Amino acid sequence: MSNTEQQNGSGGGGEEKKGESSGRQVTMEELGQHGSQGDLWLLVDGKVYDVTKFMDEHPGGDEVLTAEAGKDATEAFEDVGHSDDARSLLPGMLVGSIEGGVEKAKKTASSANQTIQKNGNPALMFIPLALLGAWFAYKHMQQ
Ligand code: HEM
C-alpha cells in the first residue's frame, strides 16, 4: 500500500514498544471509519478495540456495541459493571491507543452530545431554587 507509516497489524504480534503497551495510535477519524456492524471498533478508556468478531458472542448483544461506535464507550462499559472476565477479553481485541490520549478523545467524541447526555441543561437546577423563593415570598406576603 502507499502508506509508508509503520503499522502494527491488529493480529497478535509480539509485544509493543516500551512504555506503551497499546500498539499504534488511532485517530478519532479512523475510529469513526469502523462504525458498522461488519467492522466495529470501540473506544474504552483511551484504547481502541476491534469488536467485530466478538459482537455475536457479546452477552449484552450486538446492538449496544453498535450504539457506541465512534464514541467514547468507557462510560457505557463501566456502567454495566463488566466482570474481570470481560476485561480480560479486551487485550485480545486491541488495535491501539487513541491519538491524543483519553482527554482528547473525550472532548472530540462527546462534545457534540455532552450537554444533552450528561446532567441536561444546567439552568434546570435553578428551578427548585426559584420555586423555593416564590414560596417564601408568598408566605411573607400572607403575614
Ligand atoms: C470490548 C468491549 C466489551 C467486552 C469485551 C464486553 C464483554 C462482556 C461480557 C464478557 C459480558 C458478560 C458479563 C460479564 O462478564 O461482565 C458482558 C455483558 C454485558 N455487556 Fe459487554 N462487553 C463490552 C462492551 C460493552 C459495551 C460498550 C456495552 C454498552 C452498553 C456493553 C453492555 C453489556 C451489557 C448490557 C451486558 C449484560 C448482559 C446481561 O447480563 O444481560 N458491553 N459484556
Structural features, described:
The protein has 143 residues and is α+β, with helices and mostly antiparallel strands. It has one domain: Cytochrome b5-like heme/steroid binding domain (Flavocytochrome B2, Chain A, domain 1), CATH 3.10.120. Helix content is 38%, strand content 14%. The chain has seven helices and five strands. It has helices spanning 28-32, 62-67, 74-79, 84-89, 101-110, 114-117, 126-142, and strands at 24-26, 35-36, 39-44, 47-50, 94-98. It has a five-stranded mixed beta sheet. β2 and β3 form a beta hairpin. The longest helix is centred in the last third of the chain and has 17 residues, at 126-142. The N and C termini lie far apart (84 Å). The model is unreliable at 1-20 and 112-118 (pLDDT under 50). The structure holds protoporphyrin IX containing FE (HEM). The site of protoporphyrin IX containing FE has 21 residues, from β3, α2, α3 and α4. Residues 42, 44, 49, 51, 58-60, 64-65, 68, 73, 76-77, 80, 82-83, 85-86, 89-90, 93 line the site of protoporphyrin IX containing FE. Its main location: endoplasmic reticulum. GO terms for molecular function: heme binding; metal ion binding. Residues 23-99 form the Cytochrome b5 heme-binding domain.
Task: Write a concise synopsis of the structure shown.
With 143 residues, the protein is an alpha+beta fold. It has helices at 28-32, 62-67, 74-79, 84-89, 101-110, 114-117, 126-142; strands at residues 24-26, 35-36, 39-44, 47-50, 94-98.
